[in-house]
Amino acid sequence: MGRSGNIPGKKAAKAFQKAGWQIFGQVGSHLVLVKPGVRVNLSVPQHKELSIGTLRALIRNSGMTVEEFLELLK
To answer: What b/e readout covers 54-73, taking b as 16+ CB neighbours within 10 angstroms?
Structure first.
């Protein structure tokens, strides 16, 4: 997955927001993001480092490719 390791939850949430996802609220340490017209909600843990599996699942559920997500991190 390239350099997608060691990404904090806050940075991942900002990347999803650049892609049109909006903050809906927070449940515990998880930020809930929604996007108009998409039936899926993203629950992004606000941890210092997201595991690769969690990050991959979030990217897949958002409808983006890994490359598109990495572009938004810049």
So the answer is: bbeebbeebebeeeebbeee
pLDDT, tens digit (0-9, with 9 covering 90-100), for 13-65: 999 999 999 999 999 999 999 999 999 999 999 999 999 999 999 999 999 99
* For helices 66-73 and 9-18, angle between their N-to-C axes, nearest 10 degrees: 100
Q: Which domains does the chain have, with CATH numbers?
A: 9-73 (3.30.920.30)
> Could you give phi then psi for residue 71, rounded to 5 degrees?
-65, -40
Cα torsion 19, 25, 26, 27: sign: negative
